[in-house]
Specification:
The structure holds two protein chains of two kinds. Chain A is an all-alpha fold. Chain A has 13 helices and two strands, in the order ααααααββααααααα. Chain A folds into two domains: about 280 residues, Orthogonal Bundle (ABC transporter involved in vitamin B12 uptake, BtuC); about 50 residues. In chain A, strand 1 and strand 2 form a beta hairpin. In chain B, the strands form six sheets. Chain B has a six-stranded mixed β-sheet with strand order 6-7-8-3-9-10, sandwiched between helices. A six-stranded mixed β-sheet of chain B has the order 17-20-21-14-22-23, with helices on both faces. The chains are: A mainly alpha, B alpha/beta.
Chain lengths: ~325, ~500
């Protein structure tokens, strides 16, 4: 069994165990409504995390995604209420916010060889200011939230049967992104760029284009998440989504995509996102203070990384032993 | 025995040092000593065991057996870098061990800063004064308050030396200290080295540049295949003699070098007056179908830069390239599409995608063939990988294994294999067998020869002289970015190539 498969099995086992514990602890947990809410929450983080996964595979990081959610939701909700252009025309325009931000991130990172963290952190600051600037204010200067009334827009926050639309969108996006990563040339370029940019360039891969591409994709994922979040909340606020980077990083890291690049996939991230949503839901269901959630999330990131480092040490020792055995066998063969 | 070294003139005394990592003996019963105030050169081909010997002396690696004595003190089999430093053994690195954001004084006194008695705060003024006094004593053009970032490589080297002096080092080890210096800077370094000698400090000097070795050294020790071949006194130092000792075959045998042949037939690559400022100048050559063209020269002579420009990784300034009879503007993509393969030097840094599977490593150079409408065929990719693995005899033959977990030889087989399963017209290989065991080496040689026999043109850059003379049909030697010698007829020995590389082209030959 591959390492990634083993990791997923362990995570799913853990989820079942935690779920069983929560089910016995509180009767609300195992209701259809609650389970669907977990999936909905997991999906919102998960859509962001899918874009983030691709960035992490190139050994980069995108700290701007939360602020992209804020700006996109402000643009979408405010402009929609003023311009009254049809939603189906307007949504692609909202996603374009992500394209623009991602292009800028990618441009500064590749053109000026700046650290990804700094560029996207600066972008986060700029965007969160922008989100405040474009907010609608009343005569006294207080921000007035615009409420969404358009039924097509509100549909995105709704359900199809028991399942939330966002969950369906998340799984569809995950499926196609995974296919893209594993089966297309562009996907291969992402892995190669993250594993060793120098070697990738020598194999004819345009690493600049690849890096710009993953930041654009990450931006678009954030904008898409913004549409779902604002629709679910029926409004937009200038701080919507800011701070979600933490949950997103946790989901990706739990899912087995390391910070070192070249490794990782989307299904791991999907499981990571649902796992995280389950934990947070458990904290709520048990009636524990919600302030403990970020502590748990931070703790999980550290624990996962410790486990990964520990496992990597074991795996390397095993590989070294294997190589020695192979060499000895070869030497014996040569002697005989 | 102790009295002999403690009071005598011997500073470092190695007796019967042996070491093997895994498999072959890297050092075999080496006896070697450095006197007080002596400049002692250590020479030998790549892989002769020089670095390992240095590592043992400086405490980086443990020896398997043998006695080591420094300044009359016996050094235990396993001693630390710090212990070696405290004894007075210093290694002068080029720049790695200095901290760029700090001043010269801070670097010299790092971890031993003078401090006030109260609160143990660092006494910055005293540190600067001490550093400046040290600098002035040797007359270096440096200021104690200069930031390391602003210094040239040569100046950084002097800071390294100052740091060692402040540690009261009695032995300074310099490994290829002039490899990135200009000739004026190198001359200045030699003055410094002589000054150190006058102060009674010993210098162990490792270099491939013969003329430096002859100019500077009191004695020269030659290592070959892990054994000490000879230690020669200054009066007996003769360039040709040393080179013969390094290569280590008797004269009769060394004449047995390979016969060079100029192949006729289709010209695959025609390079005319290719130049790139500071890297290489006015390089012209033709390469024919089925020909293996070797590039010899010292590290830093411009060979790697030249082949990188031909493959399209770096731009060149002027000159022209014709490939398969057409004008060619190189780019990596055009090169791959046009049937040129490239195996870079430094496998780990440029060759492999370490965390990724063997399959993908092979697939990544073949995406053009494996992709239809943007989709990579996983089934065909695996077929390709299996072909590459079988062709190159990669062990273990697991397509899913991350390449980083393979041994060095097998990593290189993967890098080579991804090109060999393509339809190649030209293969460029740069130092293909560095750090690879003999078995894998032979396999790689067999593949290169087989490829040439099939009509593929090969450019081989190598500092491994036996490799170069064994494989190449023709050898071009570069020195300081220019072609200094082309061997295209007659028998060429390793000695000939080394003499040309060192700039002693004919003079020293009998």
């Amino acid at each position: 069994m591959s390492l990634a498969a083993l990791r997923r099995l362990i995570l799913i086992g853990l989820m079942l165990a935690i779920g069983a514990a929560l089910a016995t602890a509180h009767h609300v947990f195992l209701t259809m409504g609650n389970l669907m809410t977990i999936l909905q929450q997991g999906s919102l983080t998960g859509i962001l995390a899918i874009g983030f996964t691709l960035v992490m595979i190139t050994a980069g990081i995108d700290m701007s995604i939360g602020a992209v959610v804020a700006v996109t939701s402000m643009v979408a909700v405010n402009f929609l209420s003023y311009t009254k252009i049809p939603v189906l025309l307007f949504l692609p325009l909202s996603l374009f916010v992500g394209v623009v931000v991602g292009s800028l991130n990618g441009f500064f990172i590749t053109r000026f060889k700046l650290p990804e963290f700094i560029v996207t952190l600066a972008m986060r600051g700029i965007l969160s200011g922008l989100a405040l600037m474009i907010a609608v204010r009343d005569s006294t200067g207080f921000i007035q939230n615009v409420y969404i009334q358009d039924p097509t827009y509100l549909w995105f926050g709704g359900q199809a049967g028991p399942v939330y639309i966002v969950t369906i969108a998340f799984l569809v996006l995950a499926f196609f992104t995974q296919l893209f990563l594993k089966r297309t040339r562009a996907g291969t370029n992402i892995y190669a760029t993250g594993a060793n940019p120098a070697a990738a360039r020598l194999s004819g891969i345009n690493t600049t284009r690849t890096i710009v591409g993953v930041y654009i994709f990450s931006g678009v994922c954030a904008s898409l998440a913004a549409v779902f979040i604002s629709s679910q909340m029926m409004t937009a606020m200038p701080d919507l989504g800011i701070g979600t980077e933490m949950d997103v990083i946790a989901a990706v890291v739990i899912g087995g995509t390391p910070f070192t690049g070249g490794v990782g996939d989307v299904w791991g991230t999907v499981i990571g996102a649902v796992f995280l949503a389950l934990l947070k839901n458990g904290i709520t269901v048990l009636g524990i203070s919600p302030w403990i959630q970020p502590i748990v999330v931070g703790g999980i990131i550290v624990l996962t990384v410790i486990a990964d480092v520990w496992y990597k040490g074991l795996a390397e020792a095993a590989a070294a032993r294997g190589a020695r055995r192979a060499r000895d066998a070869a030497a014996d063969g040569a002697a005989a | 025995m102790e009295t002999k070294t403690a009071a005598g003139r011997v500073l470092l005394d190695c007796r019967g040092i042996s070491k093997s990592y895994t498999g072959p003996q890297v050092l075999d019963e080496v006896d070697f000593s450095v006197d007080r105030g002596e400049i002692h050169a250590l020479v030998g081909e790549n892989g002769a065991g020089k670095s390992t010997l240095i590592k043992i002396v400086t405490g980086v690696t443990d020896r398997d057996s043998g006695e080591l004595e420094f300044d009359g003190t016996a050094i235990p089999r396993s001693h630390s870098k710090k212990a070696a430093q405290e004894l007075g053994i210093a290694v002068i690195y080029q720049e790695l061990s200095l901290i760029p954001g700090m001043t010269v004084a801070q670097n010299i006194y790092l971890t031993k800063e003078p401090r006030f008695r109260a609160l143990r705060l660092i006494d910055l003024r005293r540190m600067n004064d001490d550093a400046q006094a040290l600098i002035d004593r040797y007359g270096f053009p440096l200021k104690a308050a200069d930031l390391i970032d602003r210094l040239s490589i040569a100046q950084r080297q002097t800071v390294e030396i100052l740091k060692a002096l402040s540690d009261r080092a009695s032995l300074m080890i310099m490994d290829e200290p002039t490899s990135s210096l200009t000739s004026a800077e190198a001359t200045r370094l030699f003055d410094i080295i002589r000054k150190l000698k006058a102060e009674g400090i010993s210098v162990l000097y490792i270099s491939h540049r013969m003329e430096e070795v002859f100019d500077l050294s009191d004695r020269v020790t030659v290592l070959r295949d892990g054994r000490k071949v000879a230690t020669l006194e200054k009066v007996k130092i003769d360039p040709a003699e040393i080179i013969r000792l390094m290569i280590g075959r008797d004269l009769g045998e060394s004449d047995r070098g390979r016969r060079m042949t100029r192949k006729a037939g289709e010209v695959v690559l025609d390079v005319r007056s290719l130049s790139s400022p500071g890297l290489f100048r006015d390089i012209s050559f033709e390469l024919h179908r089925g020909e293996i063209l070797g590039f010899g020269g010292l590290v830093g002579s411009g060979r790697t830069e030249l082949v990188r420009a031909i493959y399209g990784i770096d731009a060149y300034d002027s000159g022209s390239i014709r490939y398969l009879g057409k004008d060619y503007r190189p780019s990596v993509r055009a090169s791959i599409a046009g049937g040129i393969g490239f195996v870079p030097e430094e496998r780990r840094l440029q060759g492999i995608l370490a965390p990724i599977s063997v399959t993908r490593n092979i697939g990544v150079a073949n995406l053009d063939v494996l992709t239809k409408a943007g989709m990579v065929s996983g089934r065909r990719e695996l077929q390709f990988a299996r072909r590459g693995i079988a062709l190159m005899n990669v062990k273990p033959d697991l397509p899913d294994m991350p390449v980083g977990s393979l041994s060095g030889g097998n990593q290189q087989k993967v890098v080579l294999g991804k090109w060999l399963i393509r339809d190649l017209r030209l293969l460029i290989i740069d130092e293909p067998t560095v750090g690879i065991d003999i078995g894998a080496k032979e396999e790689i040689y067999a593949h290169i020869e087989h490829l040439a026999a099939q009509g593929v043109a090969v450019i081989l850059v190598s500092s491994d002289l036996p490799e170069l003379t064994r494989l190449a049909d023709r050898i071009i030697v570069l020195r300081k970015g220019r072609i200094v010698k082309e061997f295209d007829e007659g028998v060429v020995s390793e000695e000939d190539v080394l003499l040309a590389s060192s700039g002693i082209v004919e003079g020293a030959r009998r």
